[in-house]
């Protein structure tokens, strides 16, 4: 069995993982594992941009306030202050790595855009394709670092832990080489989860296929505390088209004036919030859901046809081209949209240095629950969070690095597993989970729906577990097991919250309780 030793292992090659690797001291041997091709990540598809205060009419105080309002009483104010106050300097780090944010024409100033919940223009962007620009530029820097080795198409299965004097310590991971089928043992002094979110738990999502919540499930199995998983964010505007898988229509369209409409042209957001289209995301997504259920319709529409077509094509080239491929000219046509799962606000609980309750295990980016987002993330705050905590963790390790001794690393036991010829079962289970999560644990919940979801997931978990031990591991099987674990964690967390707050809306408890509490889960 192959064993690979590194000083530091980073699981994930989105902004959090790459940003951390670039901030770590060059003397460390670093391994980055990525379960798909290295670029494939939510980061790569990010559209709107990254929030940071950069104009004289804006202030950190205002960005903090907007973040806290969106977070509906559950943000950790100290964390919000720290992250927001570093915003501009983190943008500078990205610029120093070559990220070319869009500037105003003929002026050297950056073009700041606006999104829901922001009271000021403060979002740095690269057209409507910010994530690809960030991912590409960071990778160029990574490729020039001799101390960093990338393992593409390696899916981490579990964290290897040891217990010393009653303390659980992370000391490596088992990973599947997706193509060779071999299970490799990676040993390291520090393990950093940067595996992104869990949007794929739901039938309709803006997320790429990699977002199956692996890091949350892996962390949970290892004994990490998982926080606030009931707060799954639904993005109000994903393209509604039979052939458009997961295509987002950025909130920055609404930031630049696009309106939400019904088929007959009626605007409806004014009945829901004074900020209308630019209300926090939970409110806009619920308003659309309400209209769709009230009228029995499949979708509503986004309208930006009143804007100058040259502006629209220049400002939103990716969205323009993509929609055109589906026969929709956004400069002339209403764009059919529906809400879809988009961002996992909860995750592996960390402190301000990205540390989890397991020694030497860190979590950064969307996989983590840091206290920044509370019950609902403010738009464009997640890329900011990813790069803030990437740098914090790197600083912490640079300062406190200690090699490990006396670790007892168990070998992977393949047992009697045989090759499977029943991949159809994986597909079936995967679809079933995503469907009932959408119907029972979606934008609007009830106790009855949550109970039903709980019964379904208990049954499915048993089936998946049998399958897991009988057959050789494949990436789809690993993802299915993780998806089921994360679905169960969401259901349990949602069932524990007896109120409606932020992204969690339960018709049986429509009011917000006076005291805001985090939902914490840990495996027995
Ligand atoms: P990701 O970028 O998702 O990277 C996760 C990495 O982990 C991948 O490399 C993946 O292969 C790897 N991985 C996962 N599981 C395993 C495993 N088991 N083994 C090995 N590797 C694994 N946020 C904003 O702030 N602004 C925006 O404009 C914005 N737009 C968005 C648009 C879209 C369409 C989407 C989907 C999200 C958007 N978001 C935006 C959210 C934001 O992009 C993500 O929260 C952020 O990029 C997450 O970064 P990350 O590094 O934590 O994870
Ligand atoms: C978008 O461009 O609408 C996504 C922004 C975000 O998720 O923060």
Structural topology:
Layout (H helix, E strand, L loop, with lengths): L2 E3 L2 E4 L3 H9 L6 E4 L8 H4 L4 E2 L8 H11 L6 H9 L1 H10 L26 E2 L5 H14 L4 E4 L2 E11 L2 E11 L5 E5 L2 E4 L20 H9 L3 E2 L4 E8 L11 H5 L3 E3 L19 H15 L4 E4 L5 H7 L1 H9 L9 E10 L2 E3 L11 E3 L4 E2 L12 H19 L22 H18 L6 H24 L4 H22 L23 E2 L3
Parallel strand pairs: 1-9, 2-3, 2-10, 3-6, 10-17, 16-18
Antiparallel strand pairs: 4-5, 7-8, 8-9, 11-16, 11-19, 12-15, 13-14, 14-15
Helix pairs in contact: 1-6, 1-12, 3-4, 7-15, 13-14, 13-15, 14-15
Explained architecture:
With 524 residues, this protein is α/β, with parallel strands linked by helices. Among the domains are: 106 residues, Alpha-Beta Complex (Flavocytochrome C3, Chain A, domain 1), CATH 3.90.700; 98 residues, Fumarate reductase/succinate dehydrogenase flavoprotein-like, C-terminal domain (Methane Monooxygenase Hydroxylase, Chain G, domain 1), CATH 1.20.58.100. It contains 15 helices and 19 strands. The protein has a 5-stranded parallel sheet with strand order 6-3-2-10-17, with helices on one face. It has a 4-stranded mixed sheet with strand order 1-9-8-7, with helices on one face. It is globular and about 65 Å long. The chain starts with a strand and ends with a strand. The mean pLDDT is 95. Succinic acid binds next to helix 8.
Compact overview of the structure:
By secondary structure, the chain is an alpha/beta fold. Helix content is 35%, strand content 17%. Succinic acid binds next to helix 8.
